[in-house]
Design a protein that fits this description.
The protein has 252 residues and is an alpha/beta fold. Helix content is 35%, strand content 15%. The protein has ten helices and nine strands. The strands form three sheets. Strands 1-9-8-7 form a four-stranded parallel β-sheet. A three-stranded parallel β-sheet has the order 4-5-6, with helices on one face. Helix 9 packs across helix 10. It is globular.
Length: 252
């Protein structure tokens, strides 16, 4: 495997770290292609943590996690591992805004047990057009909390939105799909966040994204890259390849 053309850039990175993983980990279809045969659901996260140093946690989207569940997560992964929880659907997908600040506060309280292994929180808003009132009310309770990444439609990429995110230390997630290609990493906020959602990527495409993430890290921002889940377990394979293109190890 040839070294990444961005190896020299990565060698200069001191303040920002690039973490690579997948969206979720608890998939029975991955037993064999990724997890060893016979792996139980309870053991999946432990095996996952030997390959990657971050994961997008989707279980939090459907229900608030219990402290006991988070304790099990923590016991399964190394100390330098990071979880990026997906915000509960009651925050992002409920039509009315009544009590949305309280719902954000309750969500943040529920994930406090993750401690220093808590990475950015992903807020995936389904609204195609900017809703500044909704954004303001979600951002307000985040002050002093973990970094946040907002997955938003392309119409949200306007100064009024980006300024609000930047002031709150939040970023706009870059989401690359087969039908909506992303080209850049948002330069607002304290972290960089990339979601690669296609079924396949060429070496050249991975190199291009590796370069963008390397530049974000060189600017002092921690950067997170998550590959899409699929039943063929191409997500973990692509995540490993992406990490190789960065010329870094899982824990290095």
């Amino acid at each position: 495997m040839p070294s990444s053309p961005y190896a020299e850039v990565m060698a200069q990175v001191r303040t920002g770290r690039i973490r690579v993983g997948t969206s979720g980990w608890s998939y029975r279809a991955w037993i064999g292609p990724f997890y060893p045969p016979g792996t139980s659901t309870a053991d999946m996260l432990g095996h996952y943590g030997t390959s990657f140093d971050a994961v997008e946690a989707h279980a939090t989207y459907r229900r608030l996690p219990t402290a006991a569940a988070l304790d099990r997560w923590l016991a399964s992964v190394p100390e330098d591992f990071r979880f990026a929880p997906k915000a509960h659907l009651g925050i992002t997908h409920r039509r009315d805004l009544d009590g949305v600040e309280d719902r954000v506060t309750a969500f943040l309280a529920a994930i406090v047990p993750l401690g220093d292994r808590l990475g950015p929180v992903l807020f995936s808003l389904p609204h195609q057009k900017p809703d500044l009132d909704r954004l303001d009310r979600i951002l307000a309770p985040l002050a002093g909390g973990p970094p946040a990444a907002f997955e938003l439609g392309s119409a949200w990429a306007v100064p009024e939105v980006l300024d609000r995110l930047d002031r709150a230390g939040a970023t706009m997630a870059a989401t690359d799909t087969a039908t909506c290609a992303a080209r850049e990493i948002s330069d607002v906020g304290t972290v960089a966040y990339l979601r690669l959602r296609r079924q396949s990527y060429t070496a050249e495409e991975l190199d291009a994204w590796a370069g963008r993430m390397a530049r974000a890290a060189a600017a002092g921002r921690d950067a997170y890259v998550f590959l899409k889940h699929d039943d063929a377990a191409t997500g973990p394979a692509l995540a490993r390849e992406f990490r190789r293109r960065l010329a870094v190890t899982t824990h290095g």
